[in-house]
Amino acid sequence: MKTTSILAKAVILSLVFLNLSCSKDSSDSNNSNPVNTSATTFKLDGVLITADETEATVYNNTVAGGQYIDVYAYKAGVQVLELHMPATVGNYPAQHAGFTMADSWLTYQDGSGANLLDYYHSDSGTMNLTTCDLTADELRGTFNFVGNNTAASKNITEGNLVVTEITHQP
To answer: Do residues 128 and 93 make contact, with C-beta atoms less than 8 angstroms apart?
Structure first.
């Protein structure tokens, strides 16, 4: 009788701990927009945007002396992101002014790109390139930046870069 009571208490206690751990996981995640591992995503002033297409070009920058990557992301056929960074894994400050081969230059484009005010160039932020496999044509990373067009700013947060197609230029 005593063994059955101890066993019943152990089972109940185990169920309570299991329930708490499951509840804790779901409440801690509190992420209504899970990372999309198959597409480039970012939040524009808090609104989630998922790119329809993301492509990249890798090339040798003879002036700066190294390989560089240009990434272009499109939504509904319109280019919305233009990201530039060294062709190697790393965490690069996002800046437009004083841009060098050790930095990234990140731009959000609002509209057709016909007007200079459509381009919001990075004043601050980071590009963290976590995968740079130029043989398998795969880039992955995270980014965030404040873009400015001299008249207004845009906040790009929770950026998730996914590229599976890279054009290689000699």
So the answer is: no
Q: Residue 8: which pLDDT band, with cuts at 50, 70 and 90?
A: very low
Half-sphere exposure of 119 (CA within 13 A, CB side): 12
In terms of Cα–Cα distance, which of 83, 69, 73, 100 is closest to 168?
69
Q: Are 106 and 88 in contact (CB under 8 A)?
A: no
127-132, Cβ contacts within 8 angstroms, sequence gap of 24 or more: 127/83, 127/85, 127/91, 127/92, 127/94, 127/161, 128/90, 128/91, 128/92, 129/85, 129/86, 129/88, 129/89, 129/90, 129/91, 129/92, 129/161, 130/89, 131/89, 132/69, 132/87, 132/88, 132/89
C-beta of residue 144 within 8 angstroms of C-beta of residue 156: yes
Contact (CB, 8 A) for 91 and 126? yes
Nearest-angstrom CA–CA distance, 134 and 52: 22
pLDDT in tens, 52-71: 999 999 999 877 778 999 99
